[in-house]
Design brief:
The strands form 5 sheets. Strands 3, 5, 7, 8, 9, 10, 12 and 13 form an 8-stranded antiparallel β-sheet that branches. The protein has a single domain, classed as Glucose Permease (Domain IIA) (Distorted Sandwich). It is globular, with a radius of gyration of 17 Å. Helices cover 3% and strands 34% of the residues.
Amino acid sequence: MRSVTTALALVGGAVACALLQLPAQAAVLGTAPAKDRPSGLPSIKQFATKKTEVLPADLSRAEGTAPFLGARAQAPHQGIHLYWSNKDGQWPATPGPPTDYPAVYAVADGIVGGVEPLRQMGSHQAYGFILQIAQDGRSPASVVYSLEPFVNEPAPGFYRQFLKVRNGQRVKKGQLLGYMYVPPSSDGSTHMHFHLATGSGIKSPSIFTPEAVQQLAARFADRGGMEDGAPLPPCIGYRISAAENPFGTGAADCLN
């Protein structure tokens, strides 16, 4: 998780999975001009108490997970990771149709703010989308799904079929958004990177119910999740700074 250098650019913004440095000339991914801002979305602060039980993907055959490691963590990494592997041959031995792979879901009602069918990320390619789920002041608050098989497309346009929504589409919580391709050669690098972005920066996606948090945290150890020699606690946002708190309640050792 901590050695990966990846990026996802959507809708005029850029996000780097490992370095997570925003371009100086652009606002954070998910911010739109005033005339384009979606209406009818709740304040992001609603998610401080009204959590979602829907996780971003089917974890039934995931290899492991990792939390959002904030700026105060030993090795910061601003995003949840969900990992899959084909080391045991549980995924197709040749590239198959999208329905053969883990489903990706809308974690809340929202508006698709951008779709990226292909992104070159160093030596490999990825795809993904953003989903605007709330407002943060005058800016949208969006969850970013970066789907990173860690291989190049098996054929031109292959990843496009794994995205089942279009830009501007309104979706409901739990609705299918797409599928996570797990290549035959996957050794555990295949993953989804997931975080929250607002007009003021990248935030911990601390929007999940206690039950959903436990589902994620139960797989932390599968990836050797340790911090300061101790197992990571069941946190979505671990040792986050005040700037990484989407609810404006300051720095936190554990924000769920």
